[in-house]
Amino acid sequence: MLELGKRQILRVLKKQDFGVYLSDDPKAGRDEQVLLPAKQVPEDAEIGTAIEVFLYRDSQDRLIATTREPKLELGQTAVLKVKEVTRIGAFLDWGLEKDLLLPFHEQTAKVAKGEDVLVALYIDKSSRLCATMKVYHYLQTDSPYKAGDIVQGRVYEISKNFGVFVAVDDKYSALIPRKDAQGAFRPGDLLHLRITQVKEDGKLTVSPKQKAYLQLNVDAEEIEKAIRAEGGVLPFDDKAAPELIDRKFGISKAAFKRAVGHLLKEGKIRLEDGQIYLKN
Predict the structure, then answer these.
(1) Nearest 10 degrees: CA dihedral of 20, 21, 27, 30?
(2) Do residues 91 and 102 make contact, with C-beta atoms less than 8 angstroms apart?
(3) pLDDT for res 215
(4) What are phi and psi of 5, to 5 degrees?
(5) Most buried by CB count within 10 Å: which residue of 102, 178, 180, 243?
(6) Closest by Cα among 192, 207, 193 to 251
(7) Average pLDDT for residues 228-232, to the nearest whole number?
(8) DSSP 3-state assignment of 242?
(9) Torsion 186-77-198-143 (CA) sign
């Protein structure tokens, strides 16, 4: 059986000047054979020779074989570079002569030429291979990680209801819950994350924040830098609206209050008239 989008071992049934026809059945009819172009046929290939090939469709939508190895196969995920963006979608470099289409309706964010995007390979309704940035159902759940581990994850989708969906190591399923997903995120962002839970189904819950006692110092440093950048005065204090604090620092009001309290205790700031002043 010829399998679109997969590597498989087929045998030479017929030799022509322009290539050889392959199949897994020595009695296969024309519809069960696929052409391997002459420039990719091994020099010693004869009738019956086994050749490992990948099957895809050429520019005229004909099934064709190649000995070149694509950067992903059907159902797999990989990070691919955008070669160009056209009126029908983006085209990605996946290691083959014909670029891979990423349709607009399969994009979770607008992409641009030269960007790296995490995608999965699927077969569309027209029996063509396409890419999708909606990779949730393609990610693995058998990661080697445990709670407390620090990992790298790539944002691939953002949900107002659930949070930020992340692919750890570009292949393991993970989520930053909405309560921890404060600040600005966009698909494609690479983040250093702490695993907070490994669920029974193997999916990971992660956080962009360190453990509370470590995060306190990080938040305090960022606030101190921000005050310095504002000329020594931050135009609001720890009684400000949560939305304002989130927009400015990407943290919760509770975390902001803890960090401000830490800076007060160290004598680095003072609060006055609803503002925070940096001490000299």
Answers:
(1) -140
(2) yes
(3) 64
(4) 85, 10
(5) 102
(6) 207
(7) 89
(8) helix
(9) negative
Neighbours of 146 (CB within 10 A): 10
Cα 116 to Cα 186: distance, rounded to the nearest angstrom? 13
> What residues contact residue 46 under an 8 Å CB cut-off, 6+ apart?
12, 15
Summarised one tens digit per residue, pLDDT across range 255-271 is: 888 888 888 888 888 89
Pick the closest to residue 154 from 139, 143, 170 (CA basis). 170
Q: How many CA atoms lie within 13 A of 166 on its CB side?
A: 27
Query: How far apart, in Å, are the Cα atoms of 58 and each of 4, 18, 78, 98, 182?
Result: 12, 15, 21, 7, 45
In angstroms, rounded to a whole number, what is the distance separating the alpha carbons of residues 180 and 191? 13
Does the predicted model carry a pTM greater than 0.85? Answer: no
Nearest 5 degrees, angle CA 7-CA 129-CA 102?
Answer: 130
Torsion angles phi and psi, residue 260, rounded to 5: -60, -40
Contact 6, 55 (CB under 8 A): yes
Write out the H or E segment, with its range, that includes residue 12. strand 7-16
Distance CA 270, CA 275 (A): 9
137: phi then psi, degrees, rounded to nearest 5 = -80, -5
Q: How far is 129 from 9, CA to CA, in rounded Å?
A: 20
- CA R_g for the chain: 26
